Backbone:
């Protein structure tokens, strides 16, 4: 029979998992907001949401540290010795009941899926940002960078124009 | 020799030049709403001065050329983004159709059918000897099978529709490349005679933009003004007045009637998207649906064969056996086995041969499958199905199916997001292009007034020269 104290520790561990999943879900919402602002090119709300994303990432890191510490504590309670080096959840598996094992596996599966979702939204937002920056570069180039020369077509055939300021137009 | 006659000549030249400039401005005004039209401008140049004694005096004005305002970089970027947008748009649209096949909000969803199948096993385990429960289980098994069959059929049909759409897109592509080749020829002819072919160039740009909607492409302009157009992977489509058509035969696409499939070299645009859907996205979903159906057949049969029927027989299949190396085609195949179909008594609910009718041991084992993790493959198709890999998962059938539906939902959402973003980018690029090439009515009206004043001044010059001539004649 599992001791009540270990059951209590496990319930704290489950709460931490649920908190982590909750934080990841919130992170996804913020990443979706980030997508929206990147699409609309709204820099001020974008900066705000990036700040929130950073806070959530720190928060998730804290929870993961707490989970790691909790695993160590549970292991200590089960075996009477601490854990050195790796603090992987799998180290607990031989000591857990089937019910707890299934529950932890469920959390793990959910976390794997949710992390994959975060990764994909992040990839997409990265692409949005890169494309948007490329567009801005093009706009700036159009205003300030004159091309070396441009072709135009006249009565006497193709001619090459001298470079000129392209502040307002290019001629082809 | 300078005299009043040369003044008249200058005035005549000026009148003609202003009239031509007026025609160019009028052309701009007339095309203010024409899609793809690029603003033009008449370039005025002074005639080289003629020498009279030691004095050089100008000989008036001429229209040296008519130029177009076009930013090639923006135009090129528009083509690229158009390809990207059409790719996402096509994929998002087909993925939405796929979502309706997996529509879990309906009562006829697969989740509902699977749940009802397990509930029927639960009912049977509560009353293993009951014929009503056995018949209900067979009905639920049939419903589940037919749900798999219809989903597989719908996905296969959707895949076939991709081929139809590809065929239509190829006809359009052939029309466009033929058009570009014809315009190339005209541009070369017009420009070799020294005149500008601005409007033909606009027309060619329109064709190129439409071509970009169909497939990702690159192009190069020759010295003589004609274009070489290739797919983004380098397959030549147009070179000057020559063009090479594509043709479709079943799942293959041929270039210039050469019977070697080149569909893998068509990327981007609508055609690229349809090929991705046909060879990668739909087959991957189908493979995973097959995996689910195959695993269900395998796991249920494995336990069912161990159990005993009402008459004490064993070794019976619940679903028709699907003993293959892989489960390809299982969703289309799944059906009740001939052992149990129309014979409810042959459902192996009991765990022992000599069991009482109340023995539900095997029914409970099969019911436990609902919450058991089973080894199941999760297929991934890449590179248009050239690379097919799988990941071994441990999941319940229900979890696996939810994951499958979730992925389709995520993929649809991603493509819709990407489509919206590409549309926004493209709109920005259109604005950028219009800021360079678009006709500004205010600007053109001012230009019109300037030309009108210059024309009036040239007319005045004619009348002054006329008066001067008359004065001279009167002296004589």
Residues:
């Amino acid at each position: 029979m599992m001791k009540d104290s270990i059951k209590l520790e496990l319930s704290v561990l489950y709460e931490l998992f649920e908190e982590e999943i909750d934080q990841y879900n919130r992170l996804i919402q913020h990443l979706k907001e980030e997508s929206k602002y990147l699409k609309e090119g709204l820099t001020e709300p974008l900066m705000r949401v990036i700040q929130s994303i950073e806070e959530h990432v720190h928060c998730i890191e804290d929870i993961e540290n707490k989970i790691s510490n909790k695993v160590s504590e549970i292991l200590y309670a089960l075996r009477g010795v601490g854990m050195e080096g790796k603090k992987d959840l799998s180290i607990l598996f031989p000591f857990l009941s089937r019910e707890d094992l299934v529950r932890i596996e469920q959390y793990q599966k959910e976390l794997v899926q949710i992390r994959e979702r975060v990764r994909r939204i992040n990839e997409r937002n990265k692409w949005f940002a890169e494309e948007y920056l490329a567009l801005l570069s093009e706009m700036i180039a159009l205003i300030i960078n004159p091309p070396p020369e441009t072709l135009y077509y006249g009565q006497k055939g193709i001619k090459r124009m001298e470079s000129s300021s392209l502040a307002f137009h290019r001629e082809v | 020799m300078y005299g009043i006659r040369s003044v008249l000549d200058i005035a005549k030249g000026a009148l003609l030049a202003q009239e031509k400039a007026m025609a160019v401005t009028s052309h701009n005004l007339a095309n203010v709403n024409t899609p793809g039209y690029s603003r033009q401008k008449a370039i005025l140049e002074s005639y080289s001065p003629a020498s009279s004694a030691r004095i050089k005096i100008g000989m008036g004005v001429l229209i040296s050329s008519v130029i177009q305002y076009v930013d090639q970089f923006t135009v090129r970027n528009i083509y690229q983004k158009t390809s990207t947008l059409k790719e996402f748009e096509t994929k998002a649209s087909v993925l939405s159709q796929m979502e309706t096949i997996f529509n879990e909000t309906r009562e006829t969803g697969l989740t509902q059918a699977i749940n009802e199948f397990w509930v029927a096993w639960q009912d049977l385990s509560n009353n293993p000897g009951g014929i009503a429960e056995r018949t209900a289980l067979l009905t639920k098994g049939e419903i589940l099978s037919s749900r798999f069959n219809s989903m597989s059929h719908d996905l296969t049909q959707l895949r076939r529709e991709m081929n139809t759409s590809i065929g239509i897109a190829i006809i359009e592509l052939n029309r466009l490349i033929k058009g570009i080749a014809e315009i190339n020829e005209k541009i070369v002819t017009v420009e070799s005679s020294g005149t500008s072919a601005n409007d033909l160039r606009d027309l060619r740009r329109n064709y190129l933009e439409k071509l970009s909607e169909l497939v990702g492409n690159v192009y190069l302009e020759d010295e003589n003004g004609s274009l070489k157009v290739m797919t983004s992977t380098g397959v030549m489509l147009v070179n000057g007045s020559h063009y090479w058509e594509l043709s479709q035969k079943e799942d293959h696409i041929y270039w210039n009637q050469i019977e070697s499939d080149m569909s893998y070299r068509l990327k981007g645009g609508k055609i690229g998207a349809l090929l991705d859907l046909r060879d990668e996205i739909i087959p991957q979903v189908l493979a995973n649906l097959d995996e689910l159906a195959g695993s269900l057949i395998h796991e249920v049969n494995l336990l069912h064969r161990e159990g005993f029927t009402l008459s004490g027989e064993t070794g019976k299949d619940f679903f028709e056996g699907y003993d293959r190396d892989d489960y390809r085609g299982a969703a289309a195949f799944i059906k009740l086995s001939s052992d149990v179909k129309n014979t409810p008594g042959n459902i192996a609910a009991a765990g022992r041969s000599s069991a009482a009718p109340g023995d539900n041991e095997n029914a409970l084992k099969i019911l436990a499958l609902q919450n058991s993790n089973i080894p199941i493959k999760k297929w991934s198709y890449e590179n248009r199905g050239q690379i097919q890999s799988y990941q071994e998962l441990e999941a319940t059938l229900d979890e696996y199916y939810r994951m499958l539906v979730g992925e389709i939902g995520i993929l649809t959402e991603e493509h819709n997001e990407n489509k919206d973003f590409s549309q926004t980018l493209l709109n920005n690029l259109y604005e950028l292009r219009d800021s360079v090439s678009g006709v500004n009515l205010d600007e053109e009206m001012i230009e019109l007034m300037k030309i009108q004043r210059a024309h009036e001044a040239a007319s005045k010059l004619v009348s002054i020269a006329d008066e001067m001539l008359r004065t001279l004649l009167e002296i004589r």
About this structure: Residues 169-270 of chain B form one domain.
